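About this split. The held-out portion is used to measure sequence recovery: a designer receives only the structure tokens and must propose an amino acid at every position. Recovery is the fraction of positions where the proposal matches the reference. Here is one held-out target exactly as it appears in the evaluation file.
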């Protein structure tokens, strides 16, 4: 169980799953930089993140920009949208509203419909927060993709819940360590808003150069000792 002072943003889990160094740059070194993709994502979130824009569509109540917290996982943040579906059994009670309602978190992302583990973990964390706050079991949620304007349902099965719990624990450990992992370039680096600050290609070359230099110095020292 974590204290209020130990809570970390839910979004840190998505960062960490995408790249541990990215998470460290964000939440240890406090480095932030926008690119076209993050700017588009911010615009998309601005459109949905209106706390006053709650609505009712038939048997579905919609709440936007919902604050979430879990002391078990040590997380805090906002859900872009939570749908509450009226149900006969298995739901939760809402203040001032009769009946039972099943929460269904929806996370908004830019881009095209696709499966991304980092997004699924972030969404699952929202579901776990809602379970802790409201009680009951939340079996699934959805990710809405802005480019295609379609959404993908995500089932919060045992495997995904375990991945989410592990990610939360590891992010807490990473932040507590205060150590930023070394940069390692991969194809996904092109998608990262921190590419120009992280400089993974340069960092990798410098690291490799230093390692070779240290190996050469060690070999030279060993040869000198053997002469």
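Reference sequence for scoring:
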């Amino acid at each position: 169980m974590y204290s209020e002072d130990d809570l970390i943003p839910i979004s840190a889990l998505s960062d960490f799953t995408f790249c541990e160094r990215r998470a460290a740059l964000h939440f240890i070194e406090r480095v932030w930089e926008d690119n076209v993709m993050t700017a588009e994502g911010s615009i998309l979130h601005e459109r949905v993140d209106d706390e006053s824009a709650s609505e009712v569509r038939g048997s579905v109540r919609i709440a936007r920009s919902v604050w979430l917290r879990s002391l078990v996982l040590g997380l805090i943040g906002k859900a872009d949208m939570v749908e509450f579906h009226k149900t006969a059994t298995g739901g939760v009670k809402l203040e001032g509203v009769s009946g039972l309602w099943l929460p269904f978190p929806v996370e908004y992302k830019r881009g095209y419909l696709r499966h991304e583990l980092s997004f699924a973990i972030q969404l699952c964390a929202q579901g776990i927060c809602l379970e802790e706050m409201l009680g009951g079991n939340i079996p699934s949620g959805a990710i809405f993709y802005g480019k295609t304007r379609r959404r993908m349902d995500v089932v919060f099965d045992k495997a995904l819940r375990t991945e989410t719990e592990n990610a939360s624990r590891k992010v807490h450990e990473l932040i507590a360590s205060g150590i930023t992992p070394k940069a390692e370039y991969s194809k996904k680096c092109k998608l990262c808003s921190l590419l120009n600050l992280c400089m993974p290609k340069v960092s990798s070359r410098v690291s490799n150069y230093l390692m070779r230099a240290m190996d050469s110095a060690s070999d030279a020292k060993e040869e000198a000792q053997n002469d």
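Annotator remark: The helical segments are 11-18, 20-27, 36-48, 117-134, 158-177, 195-198, 200-226.
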